[in-house]
Write a structure and sequence with these properties.
5-stranded mixed β-sheet; 5-stranded antiparallel β-sheet; mainly beta; single chain; globular; 5 helices
Length: about 375
């Protein structure tokens, strides 16, 4: 929720229980609701997959944090006038198009509804969970317009769609309330990197412009020092003690197994060869990107680096990766060099592309809240 932490107030409203569907009172077993139903005239509250008492208002009303529905983009030279080399961006390369969405903008909007390479996408960032995830917006043949509901569950943003007013959990991509309950949005591979890394890999790429039609302090972080907070704001429940609550982790599910790589470990190792769910993978880490949730000025925040997870089997051949003393990523088998985007930049395999696994950056507490069975690499 893009509000100063000191001024955010949880909304505890009295609710008129509107009857939805044929289930009578859908809230009869929920006790005192902590969200308002006044706006949700089309939401089928009879259908839900989680207890209603786990959902509460974070303060803003639906779209009180406005998504960007008509994004405008600019070239590298224009973007360089306001972004620094270390500025963190969500990068999406799809069907020959490469676009970057600065967290300096997304921290104030949380969702960008866009179309990249002809694919309708939703680029999402939940500041309270540090979760950057991109989805395909198509469900059952219709393209959804997604927004910020204003509600939270386990501190994670709940998204809503305009067509059915169903509610979607951002970290899982699953509809948890409404007509589409049980459906999942398809994940689209993306990663968080620095502006410098994006510019080097995609010199013709485009960057989301600050010309959004909204007046916001782009580049400012309203969650100062949040990523060093031992008790995450608005999180209810027990925090998994295996890592500090706001440890940055690269986490996802591979072959049915949940895995998390702490950024602190990735920074020491540089590269990790692993087998997850029976699949050979490699985690790359590179210095250069700052946290969007540290200092008030994002670009002057502490550096946390950037990471991505890839399958390390290429054309039927399993590769082993290492980082040499100069910090260059290379595979042992051919000596080819690689970048953080999983692309061979020199050597025998130059031009080859590793298949990206679906792993994204999160805060540890948030990922563990939804995937408590997660294995932590190194433990």
């Amino acid at each position: 929720m893009a509000l100063a932490l000191g001024t955010m107030v949880m909304l505890m409203s009295s609710v008129t229980h509107a009857q939805q569907g044929n289930c009578g009172d859908p809230f009869k077993d929920a006790g005192r609701l902590r969200f308002s139903t006044a706006f949700w005239q089309k939401t089928d509250f009879c259908k839900h997959s989680v207890p209603y008492d786990e959902i509460f208002s974070g303060g803003p009303p639906p779209d009180g944090i406005p998504p960007i529905d008509r994004p405008r983009f600019e070239g590298m030279s224009e973007a360089a006038q306001w972004l620094s080399d270390q500025s963190p961006l969500i990068v999406l390369a799809l069907e020959g198009e490469a676009r970057a969405y600065p967290l300096a903008i997304l921290i104030w909007h949380e969702i960008v509804n866009d179309s990249v390479g002809g694919v309708p996408v939703a680029v999402t960032f939940c500041p309270l969970c540090n979760s950057s995830i991109v989805f395909d917006r198509r469900v059952d043949g219709q393209t959804l317009r997604l927004g910020v509901s204003g509600n939270l569950r386990k501190s994670d943003m709940i998204i809503w769609d305009e067509q059915t007013q169903s509610w979607w959990q951002q970290i899982t991509g699953e509809a948890i309330v409404g007509a589409l309950t049980g459906r999942r949005l398809s994940l689209i591979s993306a990663q968080v990197v620095s502006f410098e890394a994006f510019r080097a890999a995609f010199p013709e790429g485009k960057v989301l412009s600050r010309e959004t039609g909204h007046d916001r302090s782009y580049g400012r972080n309203p969650y100062t020092s949040y990523d060093s907070n031992p008790r995450p704001f608005l999180f209810e429940g027990q925090i998994d003690p295996r890592l500090p609550a706001t440890e940055h982790v690269l986490s996802g599910i591979v072959g049915g197994e949940a895995i998390a790589y702490p950024f602190s470990l990735l920074a020491r190792e540089g590269v990790i060869n692993d087998v997850v769910g029976g699949e050979a993978v490699v985690a790359f880490w590179q210095d250069g990107a700052v946290s969007a949730l540290d200092r008030g000025d994002i670009d002057s925040s502490r550096r946390v680096g950037m990471a991505a997870l890839y399958a390390r089997t290429l054309d039927g051949r399993r590769l082993t990766f290492e980082r040499n003393k100069a910090g260059v990523l290379r595979d042992v088998e051919t000596g080819s060099t690689w970048n953080v985007f999983g692309r061979a930049t020199d050597g025998t395999l130059k031009g080859a592309q590793l298949e990206r696994a679906f792993a994204n950056p999160h805060f540890w507490f948030a990922w563990a809240a939804f995937r408590p069975e997660t294995r932590i690499y190194g433990q």
